[in-house]
Structures are given as C-alpha cells and as structure tokens.
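Example 3.2
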Amino acid sequence: MTATANRLMRHGLLSASDVSLQCDSHITMARNIIKRVPLDGGFIMHGLAAMVWFRVLSIAQVSNSYPILITLIFVLVSVGAIFFFEDTFSVQKGLSIFVITLMLLGIIEVASA
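Structure, written as tokens:
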C-alpha cells in the first residue's frame, strides 16, 4: 500500500507541475494541488497503510515486521518507478534491488524461525 501511495503521490505532484507557485496566496496554491486525484489517492493509501501497519504491530514483533516493511517498500517503489515513471534502470540499481530482495528473503526466513 505504501509503495502504491508513493507512486500515486509522485504522479499527482508531477501532474501538478502546471500549478503556478506564484499564486495569490498559499491557500490558492494548496487548493490547486489538492484537486489532483492521484495526490489525494496517495494520501488515502498512506492512511490505509498506517491502519494495516497498526494491525501488524498488534500481532507481530517489530523486530521482525519492520525490516520486512522497509525492504518491501524499497523494492516495490524502485521497480514501480522504473515501470510507471520511466526512471532510469542501471546495472547498479538492478543489483541493489536484487541484493535487497535476497536480504528480504533472509529476513523472512529468520522471522519465521
């Protein structure tokens, strides 16, 4: 959810590039940005992700669940950025995603033991 929220927020902010920062007031500028549906969707997804995270914290140990959350977010946001926002893909980025995915598998293995 957090990865999707991040991608939605990025899309919303990129589409808000036509919003002038030279508005009459900060309130007008904020209204123009808030009208962006993907941005709103990103905020909502972050709220839902927080609710899911609170549930996870109530049933799982933080020492197991937090590393899994962080590595999943990193991998999903990186891959999503490559596919949805045409971020550049390099060998270094590919190796980083691969190594972090291996670390995620190791964390899951340790957490399940």
